Amino acid sequence: xxxxxxxxxxxxxxxVEWKELGRISEFYGGLTGKNKSDFQVGNSKYVTYKNIxxxxxVKEELFEYVKVAxxxxxxxxxxxxxxxxxxxxxxxxxxxxxxxxxxxxxRIYLNSFSFxxxxxxxxxxxxxxSKYLFRSRAIRxxxxxxxSGVTRYNISKVAFKKxxxxxxxxxxxxxxxxxxxxxxxxxxxxxxxxxxxxxFRKQQYAYYRDKLLSFEDDVYxxxxxxxxxxxxxxxxxxxxxxxxxxxxxGAIPWLRTQEIDFREIYSTELTIxxxxxxxSSAKWVxxxxxxxxxxxxxxxxxxxxxxxxTTNQACCNIEVNERLVIYRxxxxxxxxxxxxxxxxxxxxxxxxxxxxxxxxxxxxxSLDIQSRTVQVLDNFDTVCNDLKIGLPxxxxxxxxxxxxxxxxxxxxxxxxxxxxxxxxxxxxxxxxxxxxxxxxxxEDIIRLLNWVFGPIRVSLGSICDxxxxxxxxxxxxxxxxxxxxxxxxxxxxYGFSARETLSFAEKAxxxxxxxxxxxxxxxATTSExxxxxxxxxxxxxxxxxGIGGHSCILHTEQNAKYLVYYFMTNQFKxxxxxxxVGTKVIxxxxxxxxxxxxxxxxxxxxxxxxxxxxxxxxxxxxLSQGLPxxxxxxxxxxxYFRDSLLNFKS
Length: 650
Prior knowledge:
CATH class of the largest domain: Alpha Beta
Helix content: 25-40%
InterPro entries: Restrct_endonuc_typeI_TRD, Restrct_endonuc_typeI_TRD_sf, Type-I_RE_S_subunit
GO molecular function: DNA binding
Shape: elongated
Subunit structure: The methyltransferase is composed of M and S polypeptides.
Strand content: 15-25%
Radius of gyration: 38 Å
Family: Belongs to the type-I restriction system S methylase family.
Protein name: Type I restriction-modification system S protein
Distance between the termini: 17 Å
Number of domains: 3
């Protein structure tokens, strides 16, 4: 027998008396006749819904203000009152209580979404006792039965008045309060320590998550230089006098511009002699130089000499600095920019000169990236096969594909970001999987860029197809039906992934909604604050799910969880702040989401990062283990002990 049992036996040997609330108290409502402006500039304090919902006793520091005239007839709270929330989205959270355990020194009002209970003067009940009592399981079970609804559960005051509560003698109430206060203090202190540790771990997790997803020095950064800065020598050649036959026909290869045509030079049509070399401006050009035609019909065309040779004065010969650039990379860049270089020509024949060549800009990635770029462009078929990129059988189509991929590869080299796809590249992206030519080609480009550059910057529009949600209101929810996700639940009820929905709708509603498929991302695009807007989850269920308005579906061939983790980073939040619109209602429109830039590593690296972050998330968020589990166990231990003390037999 416990100490409390002994007290009960001593003070009420026939058991504790239970009485209906309607017989021992009066009920009163909250504020009435108020509009939005009354809460903007107020002169009187009031208890908010949240203050009641979140605390077993009313917190004075959480009061807010409302405008109330002196002659208004409004109810105000008093010492000993029990305040009750009138409704909630779930039955389990409806009718939560908070006791007034202080003596108000002024009139303090109650919000309109709650009601108050004031015990009759002849009822002996300590407010500190009632704050525990109304949160106990025995009373909560009765309260939950008074709530009804589908999307929102409302408390019936008529039913509430029939709830029975125990009224033990004051001596027993006070002893129970002493015990529970002490135990509450112990649990609160322990929970605070655990929560502080959990907060620290979450901050640590966020730090490592952002660091892991920043890639810092790994992500490609564009650095531009001029050809003059990446060359050890840029020279032109010369032409020996045609009047002296002895200057020609020797052993020295001599190149003219008409022989320059995007190829490697292993021999020349003409040769000159040592005498011709000595008596002209012709000079030796080292093997593996990049040679540009400056004059005439071939102006702007390039070649690589695979032998030491000399050239005429119409050739610009670039000997590269091998510590900065690979000669074949320079060759490919100039070949790709043939039209640009040619357009810089002057005069009727559009001739270019050494000054123009020296000042021509070239992006200079690392030698490793240059090497892989050259490998792609020199061995396109082999690399495509290794990366499982399909190749057309027809030579003409294969050449077009080569030019397409070269353009994407060298454009990324120059810009450092893979941009949103255009309409042509989106063709054929049917979700049934039968024709996905546009998507497949896009994924091929991403795979190729990842192979060359490693982690790359991409716009979300380049890797995601966006579908805006439609319809779906809370009144459409039913107890059983087809799975649906409401935008408000994304940032209030869901984590970053879900296998089951919290809500359902009838078939008629479901059929009209846009659908997310397994592994699609669902993002909330509307909120009252920037922090919540853009919150997303990965749908991991086995069936399609209906998506309501103020949200959008992101379909991607990348790792969806990787993207959602990235959306949580500080890097993404900074961008989001610049892309959202609105003041009171914040909108993150799909057309703006598409502009956001993320860092995308190869798909296998994405999977590895997700695996690491999943483990971190489990330790900081999963209620089945780690600190969250320990905090939950302390709370359950407290509730069990409290309910045991307050479980009086009538």
